[in-house]
Each structure stands twice: as structure tokens, then as C-alpha cells.
Amino acid sequence: MSNKWNIxxxxxxxxxxxxxxxKLYQEEGVQGFYAEKKTRGTxxxxxxxxxxxQQYLNEGQEPCDVADQLGIKRDTFSxxxxxxxxxxxxxxxxxx
Length: 96
Fold this sequence. Notes:
96 residues; mainly alpha; Arc Repressor Mutant, subunit A; 5 helices
């Protein structure tokens, strides 16, 4: 029987957790177990950015243009519209 299965039985851990630990050890050594956990970066759509974005949308600018101006990924921006954090103002067709 392999060492992995002995560890799984002895410590009552899952096989995948052993695989992950072995991979971490091979890639980063012992320090990998003590390094700070990687977390998400700061939020892109802060209150200030949302306010500025909504002003641009109120002026009638297209969402993709506003996202580009503010340096925000277009799908992040469209998600904010879908979830109601931003409101896209529809342009009215003017007939002459």
C-alpha cells in the first residue's frame, strides 16, 4: 500500500488534501505551508467608481465605453448593471 493511503488512514484526511499538500510541498517547499493565503484583490467597483459610472450612463454613454474609460472589465461592468448596482439609461429614438 502506498504512503498516501497510510496518511489518509492514519490522519483521517481525504486523498485530495494529501495530493494538494504534496503538490504544494513540491512547488514551494516547507515555506508554502506557512505563506499567507492568497486573497482576492480590492473591489474594482468602489462607491466613487460606481458614482462616476452612473453619471456617464446618465449622460447617455454606452456601457462598454464607460467601462473602457474607467478601466473596468466590460463583463464586470455589465454584471453591475444586471444586478442593479448601476442603471443603464436607454436612449429614446426621436422620430422627425
